[in-house]
Amino acid sequence: MGNKEQTFRKIIEIAYVMFAENGFEKTSLAMIATEVGISKPAIYYYFQSKDQLIAFIFDELYKEIQHDVAVDYKELSSANFKEELLKLGYKSIEAQDKDPYFNKIFNQYVLLAARDENYKRQLVELETSFLTSFVAILRYGVQLGVLEDTPHIEAKAQMLALVYDNIGNFMLTGNQLNYRAIWKEAVNSVIQGGKNDKKK
């Protein structure tokens, strides 16, 4: 990796932490440049404005969230469906443990979306995609015969998505809960409940 690439990645990493801890408003490019160890004029070689840097990090987060809930359906079977669904949540919990800044900076984008229609639109698209991913996973569970095809299957998927999302929010506050057990209970309620549901 060349020096320019190293500096670029360092800018992103430091901006990510500073935006998460201090917010967008209270973090300037000059502050980021100082932490990186370059001059303020030098940072403009990489990003023409703070808004451009904020947008770049958002795009990275957008891709990461979509990747986190992506499932390789070729690897799913009736035998491992529940296990893979559990892994989906466990992976998120472990990632949150390793990166305490993720939800903090994401909340900054939620605040930004309140006054910026572009970010608002993108967050709505991301949220819709997030919910749709869980619906698709459970519908595949129906195809595998793990779940009954009931009118409640979409609500079950949305419940899982909400639990998945809110675990991260609770971890952000520092609450020491057994998040793996919570996710397991949520998955069990969907799998076991799905077997007992009657078609209506």
Automatic annotation (TrEMBL):
* Highest rank taxon of the organism: Bacteria
| Recorded coiled-coil stretches | none
Against InterPro entries, the record matches this protein to:
DNA-bd_HTH_TetR-type_CS, Homeodomain-like_sf, HTH-type_TetR-like_transc_reg, HTH_TetR, Tet_transcr_reg_TetR-rel_C_sf
UniProt-recorded name of the protein = TetR/AcrR family transcriptional regulator
The record's section on SUPFAM superfamilies has: Homeodomain-like, Tetracyclin repressor-like, C-terminal domain
Q: Which residues bind DNA?
A: 28-47
Arranged from A to Z, the UniProt key words for this protein are: DNA-binding
Pfam families noted in UniProt? TetR_N (PF00440)
Domain named HTH tetR-type is located at 5-65
Q: Which PROSITE patterns match?
A: HTH_TETR_1 (PS01081), HTH_TETR_2 (PS50977)
* Organism this protein belongs to: Lysinibacillus capsici
* This protein's record includes keyword DNA-binding: yes
